[in-house]
UniProtKB/TrEMBL annotation:
It comes from Neoroseomonas oryzicola. The lineage of its organism: Bacteria, Pseudomonadati, Pseudomonadota, Alphaproteobacteria, Acetobacterales. The keyword Chaperone applies. Belongs to the SIMIBI class G3E GTPase family. ZNG1 subfamily. Residues 239-334 form the CobW C-terminal domain. InterPro entries: CobW-likC_sf, CobW-like_C, CobW/HypB/UreG_nucleotide-bd, P-loop_NTPase, Zinc-reg_GTPase_activator. GO terms for cellular component: cytoplasm. Pfam families: cobW, CobW_C. This is GTP-binding protein. GO terms for molecular function: hydrolase activity; nucleotide binding.
Length: 349
């Protein structure tokens, strides 16, 4: 029996981690290994996927093209060895970075001898955010590829977007991908049976570009070369990712005020903010998520991940917004909040 592989994709902030967390709690997902590809210097998603860490492998190399293909094959080879030794690996979920073009992964899973010997591609599940989805499809070629190559499309955040916007987006997705059922999930809630057992990826019935994209990836082969400079469909040069680490606990007031300012003034440039924070006066870690102008309420997690140094980590994926502006702004808000707290405690004495 070959081990089924599900590719979970969707543009930044579509809710992949939320959906994955909900799916992994279902009994039929026991024995699932999760491979996460993170775009940026500090991989955070594996800390936010509440699962045994030994089953989560971080593929850390930015966009999923040449370098990550090698990582993916190595990770699958390791999982195949574990399965042969009797360790239960019933299925694999590959969660791609929101900026990933799915074609290289599909090409790897459909053509690599190692992948084909032990694994079978079950299908591609693409999440599309009802709030930002239409604008994302207008501006990001990767988002179009993700939707066109899906076997199941899950529209998220319909409760925030409103019925008219959600319905219009769904009609557009059906035109872009006539073969994939379009489903809805609220707060990541969807039954695993809806997304699993799809039975493999097929090009038939899709828009003609899909076959061309896969053929182009097959043409790239496995030799290393840099195709980023001459392929306009790769990441926009203005997009960059970085992480900030803070040793001391952060004042929530300072962080929250700064996040509001960032979303208000530069939301269009903020493709993603994700953080695991150690807040002053708080024992448990707090996760923050933001996409463009929308910041979700902070979530207090049950406990710090084992072996975590408890330093706050925030990752950013930005477009046309320099790192130093973001870093300086955050530091100044945090500093003034700390000073205000000190003045308040002095006055109470």
């Amino acid at each position: 029996m070959k081990i089924p592989v599900t590719v979970l994709t969707g543009f930044l902030g579509a809710g992949k981690t939320t959906l994955l967390n909900r799916l992994l709690k279902a009994p039929e997902m026991a024995g699932t290994a999760v491979l996460i590809n993170e775009f940026g210097e500090i991989g955070l998603d594996h800390l936010l996927v509440e699962r045994l860490d030994e089953d989560t492998v971080l593929l850390n190399a930015g966009c999923l093209c040449c370098t990550v293909r090698g990582d993916l094959v190595r990770a699958l080879r390791d999982l195949a060895v574990r399965a042969e030794r009797g360790q239960e690996v019933t299925r694999v979920v590959v969660e791609t970075t929101g900026l990933a073009d799915p074609a290289p992964i599909l090409q790897t899973l459909m053509s690599d001898p190692v992948a084909l010997s032990a694994f079978t591609l079950d299908g591609v599940v693409t999440l599309v955010d009802a709030v930002n989805g239409a604008a994302t499809l207008d501006t990001q070629v990767e988002a179009v590829k993700q939707a066109a190559m899906a076997d199941r499309i899950v529209v998220t955040k319909t409760d925030l977007a409103g019925e008219a916007a959600a319905t219009a987006l769904e009609a557009r997705l059906v035109a872009l991908n006539p073969v994939a059922p379009v489903l809805r999930a609220v707060a990541g809630g969807i039954a695993p049976v809806e997304l699993l057992g799809i039975g493999g990826f097929a090009v038939g019935g899709r828009i003609p570009q899909v076959a061309a994209w896969l053929a182009a990836e097959a043409g790239h082969g496995h030799h290393h070369h840099d195709h980023h400079h001459h392929d306009p469909n790769r990441h926009d040069a203005a997009i960059h990712a970085f992480g900030l680490v803070f040793d001391d606990p952060l004042p929530w007031q300072g962080v929250a005020t700064w996040l509001e300012m960032l979303a208000l003034t530069r939301g269009d440039s903020v493709l993603r903010v994700k953080g695991l924070l150690n807040l002053a006066g708080e024992d448990r870690p707090v996760a923050i998520h933001g996409v463009q102008h929308v910041f979700h309420p902070p979530v207090r997690l049950a406990a710090w991940p084992a072996g975590h140094d408890r330093r706050s980590r925030i990752t950013f994926v930005l477009r046309n917004l320099p790192r130093d502006i973001v870093e300086a702004g955050l530091v100044s808000f945090v500093t003034s909040a700390r000073e205000a707290a000190e003045i308040t405690s002095e006055s109470r004495r």
